[in-house]
Amino acid sequence: MKKQTIKITDVETTMPHDGFIVSKTNSKGIITYCNEIFMQMADYEEIELLGKNHNLIRHPDMPRVAFKLAWDMISTGKEFFGFVKNLRKDGGYYWVFVNITPDYDSSNNIVGYTSARRKPQQSAIDAIIPIYKEMVRLEQSGGMDASGKYLFDFLDSNKIGYDELVLSLQGV
Ligand SMILES: Cc1cc2nc3c(=O)[nH]c(=O)nc-3n(C[C@H](O)[C@H](O)[C@H](O)COP(=O)(O)O)c2cc1C
């Protein structure tokens, strides 16, 4: 099923408290593994996910710059934390608190990535929604430069780093 054919709805699926969604990709972001709860939350069968680009579940409410930040970090060996709204195959959505880390071969080359997600704090999502909304709005007129500037100005004015903000919102 192509993403364009999905009719987006306002129906939210919330993650169980003890849920732990895991997926793995190759170095290009093509899904190579996903666990059972990933399939349940995203509303896909395993066969529909393996070999597909992870952007299959990208939600249009997510600012592009969030993924740029993620890729800039993980492709240079850092881990990424963030809040992500994902698109289900049935058009609904689910929020996650995500951690993505690089996987290395024995010669220390990045060969892929592993992502683990848990239930986000509702207070964190309430704080992130208006920020992402503004970032998406800015991207539509000024592209990723504009939304990136907004994010970094927001962090500067609150005297907080990106990781610090995200981890403190989740309370970890
Ligand atoms: C291990 C891993 C997990 C990812 N998980 C998600 C995810 O759950 N949702 C999502 O929209 N993008 C996820 N991404 C990012 C996608 O690769 C992609 O950058 C993003 O969906 C934006 O797509 P686009 O660059 O085609 O616009 C993940 C990437 C990696 C490497």
Structure description:
The structure is a single chain. Helix 4 (122-157) runs antiparallel to helix 5. The protein has a five-stranded antiparallel beta sheet. It is built from five helices and five strands. The termini are far apart. The chain is of the alpha+beta class and 172 residues long. The mean pLDDT is 96. Strand 1 (21-26) and strand 2 form a beta hairpin. The protein is 39% helix and 23% strand. Bound molecules: flavin mononucleotide. Residues 23, 25, 29, 54-55, 57-58, 62, 64, 67, 71, 84, 86, 100, 113, 115 line the site of flavin mononucleotide (FMN).
How are the SSEs placed, and which strands pair?
Elements: E1 21-26, E2 31-34, H1 36-42, H2 46-49, H3 64-74, E3 80-87, E4 93-104, E5 110-118, H4 122-157, H5 162-170
Antiparallel strand pairs: 1-2, 1-5, 3-4, 4-5
Helix pairs in contact: 4-5
Bound molecules: flavin mononucleotide.
What molecules are bound to this protein? Answer: flavin mononucleotide
Order of helices and strands: EEHHHEEEHH
Number of helices: 5
Strand content: 15-25%
Gyration radius from CA atoms, angstroms: 16 Å
Structural class: alpha+beta
Uncertain segments? none
* Terminal-residue CA separation: 37 Å
> Biggest sheet: strands side by side, in what order?
2-1-5-4-3
Q: Note the main sheet.
A: 5 strands, antiparallel
**Mean of residue pLDDT values:** 96
What does the overall shape look like? globular
- Work out the helicity level: 25-40%
Total beta strands: 5
